[in-house]
Design a protein that fits this description.
single chain; 232 residues; alpha+beta; four-stranded mixed beta sheet; 9 helices
């Protein structure tokens, strides 16, 4: 097992992207040092470690930085191969997982951010519609990928579970702020059960902040929005 001196994680607790890395490290039982970035500023270590995007998360392993959350998750799975597998071993299943991971980041999660900070009722309604449509697609993906088992990855949490599950905190915030039920038992029964199992898994417990704490964070972030861009 790697020691905390070998592995460091630059991040912020409210970040869904950082949560991906923390969950993956927990699955592999990797001991690490968590270096929390101060909101509204970027440490010198972050700027040196990720000079291209200047964003969290950054995993530093043996003084070598790795950036971008899903790339880091794959790195963790490959380096600590003796632990439970995160990525599917079947090439087709792996390709499908990566496809949906990209969909979540590029198409679905931007609507989630919009719902947390709507520009009006029309924008809110449009964001809700996109989120609901996306959840319907992810419900179908869950049925196909899980093959009747508990998680997208089968019997245990895998790559796509981490990619999507890291947004559950933000999803609950959006539901509360927007006054809408996005994960609905009638429309997405598979995802409702999956979300409960994912959140109660030992690798996830304590990683995703409580809804009220996340709401406080997002309100603070909105208040500081004019200061300039901040880490995700």
């Amino acid at each position: 097992m790697a020691t905390s001196t070998d592995v460091k994680l630059l991040g912020s607790r409210p970040s869904s992207y950082v949560n991906r890395v923390r969950i993956a490290l927990n699955i592999k039982c990797v001991d690490y040092e968590f270096l929390e970035e101060k909101f509204g500023s970027k440490s010198e270590l972050l700027l040196v470690s990720n000079p291209v995007h200047k964003k969290i998360p950054v995993l530093i392993h043996d003084n070598k930085p790795i950036c971008e959350s899903l790339i880091i998750v794959q790195y963790i799975d490959e380096v600590w191969a003796s632990g439970p597998s995160i990525l599917p071993s079947d090439p087709y299943d792996l390709a499908i997982s990566r496809f949906w991971g990209a969909y979540i980041d590029e198409k679905w999660s931007p609507s989630l951010r919009e719902l947390r900070t709507p520009q009006g009722e029309e924008a809110k309604a449009a964001a809700v519609e996109r989120l609901v449509e996306g959840l319907a697609l992810l419900e179908e993906a869950f049925v196909k990928c899980s093959k009747g088992k508990a998680f997208f990855g089968g019997d245990s949490i895998g790559y796509l579970d981490i990619a999507f599950g890291s947004f559950l905190g933000g999803l609950r915030v959006a539901e509360k702020i927007g006054g809408v039920a996005l994960l609905d038992e009638a429309k997405t029964p598979g995802l409702v059960g999956w979300a409960e199992r994912f959140s109660s898994d030992d690798a996830v417990k304590g990683v995703i902040l409580e809804t009220e704490k996340l709401i406080e964070f997002f309100k603070m972030r909105q208040a500081m929005a004019k200061v300039g861009p901040t880490p995700n």
